[in-house]
Amino acid sequence: MKIINRPINDTKWHRLDNTATVFPVISNKTFSGVYRMSVRLMNDIDPEILQKALDVTIPWFDSFLVRLRRGFFWYYFESNRKRPLVQEEKNGPCGYIDPVPNSHLLFRVIYYKNRISVEVFHALSDGTGAINFLKELTLCYLRLSELPPNTPAKISLPTVEVTSDSEDSYIKNYQKTAKLKMTSERSYQIRGDRLPLYSTGIIHGYLPVDELLPVCRAKGVTITQYLASLLLYSIYVGNLNRQPSKYPVKIFVPVNLRPLFDSTTTMNFFSNIAIGFRFDNQEHTMDEILASVVSQYKEQMNKDIFLQKIAANVRLGKNIFARFIPLVIKNLIVKIAYLLSFDSFTTTLTNIGNVSVPEKFTSMIDSFGVQVNVADREPFKCGICSYGNKMNIIFTSRYKDAYVQRTFFRELVKAGVNVSIETNGVYYEDL
Amino acid sequence: MKTCNRCNIKIMDDAATCPLCKTVLEECEGAPGESMYPVTDASVKSFTIFTRIVLFFSIVAGIVSIMVNVVMYDGVMWSLLTTASIIYFWAAIVFVVKNHANVASKILVQAVCASLLLVVIDYVAGYTGWAVNYVIPNILSLANIVILIVILVNRLDWHNYVIYHIMIGLLGFVPAILYGFSIIHHPIIPIITAAISLASLAATFIFGERTVKSELKRRFHF
After folding, report:
1. Which superfamily is assigned to A184-428 in CATH?
2. Strand B2-4 vs strand A13-15: parallel, antiparallel, or unpaired?
C-alpha cells in the first residue's frame, strides 16, 4: 500500500483534467455533478465485509484518494490520506458530496439492501473510471464474503484490468486541427411540473437484451441508436403530444474516447455527440427518426471530429491569457458560459454498454446500473447499462409526471420486449 | 410482483398503482414487491429557524440604528459603528463558528475583520489614530504568533497553513509601510510587528523549505 508508506510530508498533487475544471464551478447543493454506479447482488450487503473490500480495493485506485483545492489560477487535486468509509444509503441518489463531512473525499460508497453504489463527483473521473472501481470493489466483496468470518483481508492483485494511470488524455491527444464550428442553437426543453426541491424521480426499466436485440437487428441499427431514437420519439409523443416544436429535441450522448485514442486514464476522457430531431409536424414516425439518428451517428462518430472537439477544449486551457486569469474570475466566466449554454440539450442519454465480470462471479451478481444526476437546469436524463442478458435503463427526472418514460417503456413492450420497472417511490406520493 | 394491464409492464415495487399511468395494479406471480430505495426526507432546509431569527433581528437592528441616528443627528455618525459591528458579527464570528474552514484562514479573516472594525470605531469616535497606531499592529503580531503555534502543534498539516501564514506575514509589514507614509506616527509597535513577521516568515522558509516551496508551486501553478 504505497499510499500509507509514502513520506508523510510529500503531498502529491495533479491538475484537473480538461473537462473536469467545469464541475467544481457549476456544482452545488442543487446541481451535484455526481453520478452513481450501482450493482445489485443476490444477498443483502454486509457492511463490515464491504468496508474490508473497500480498504483492500482503494489503494489500486489512488486517483480517487484526493481532495479538491483552490490554487490562485486553477483548481487542483491533492492526495488525501483519509480512509473512505462505507455508509448506509439514507438520501436520494446522486446527492451533492459536501467535502467537509466526507473527509474531503469526492466519492462515496453506499449500500442498501442488496445494492452497492459508488457515487462519484464528475471532476474525479467519468463513468468508465467509476465502473472499473465498482467492479473491482464488488469482486473483492464477493471474494471476501466467501471466506470464513474474521479472516484478515489480504491484499491481492485486482481481478479486472486496473490501471492507476492519471494522465490528462485530452492534452496528450491534442493536435492543432481545423476549428470546430460551434453551433449554439438552443433545444426544446421538456415542460412539466417539477418535483419538490432535492427530490428526484427514478424509474428503472429492466429488460432482456436477447428480446431487444432482434428488434434492433430488424431495423438494422445498434442498441444505442435504437434507444436514442426511442427517447426522441417518447419526448415527441409523451411531452410534445405530437405538436410541432420551434426548437429541435437534442440528446447529449457521451462517448468514451479511451478505445478511440488507446488511453487507459482513470480521469475523465469522454466527448459527446449530439443526436437531434426537429419535430415540425404531427405525423413523425419512429422509422423516420431512426433513419435520421443513424445518419447523425455516422456523421459524428468520427475520430477527426473528436480530435477537433478535444482541440477546442484544450486550446482554451492552453491560452496564455486564460491561464493567468485568477480562479475567481475564471469561475465567473465558466458559470456564465454554462448558464448560457445548458439549454442547448434537451436530455442526456449515456450507455456504458455491457459490464462483464469473470465467469465464476456471474451467478452472484443480479444487475448493474448507472444514474446521472438531475437538477432544475438539467431535469431529465437517462443511463443505460447491461449485465449478461439484463439491461437496466434508468431515468432520473425532476418532473412530477412520467409521460416520456411511459411512452418509452410502452413502445418497448409493443415491440415485443418484456419490461419490468422499479421506482424510488416518488411517483406514488402525490395521490 | 404486480402488473399493469394498461402498460403491460411488471411493477417490482410495493405499490398499488402504476407509476407510469396511475392505473390500479393487479397481483401476479413472483416474489412480493419491495422498495429498493430508502425513504428520504426531501425537506432539507439551508437555514435553521434560529439563524433566521438572528439574521432578521440583526437587519432590523441595523435599520433602526441608522434611522434613529439620521432623525436625531447630533454630529456623531454612531450608527456606522453599530452597522459595522453587525456586519463584523456575520462576516467574522459566523465564519469562525460555523464554517469548517482551515484554522489559519479563520485567524487571518478574524485579524483582518477586527482591524477594519477598529478603524471604523476609531473614526466614529473622532479619529485619534489609536487603532492604526497601537491596536492593529498588535493584532497582526498576535495572529502571526498564533498561526506559528498552530503550525507547531499541527506539523503534519503544515502545508495547509502555509498560504495563510505568508499572507498574515506580509500584512505584518503594512503598519511599518504606513509609518513610511506618515499615516502612523509612533514607530515602535509597527517595527516590532514587522520584525515578528520577518522572523516568522524566515522560520517558515528555512524550516519548511520543501513543504513551503511545493505548496506555493501548487497554489500558483498556471
Report:
1. Nonribosomal peptide synthetase, condensation domain (3.30.559.30)
2. unpaired
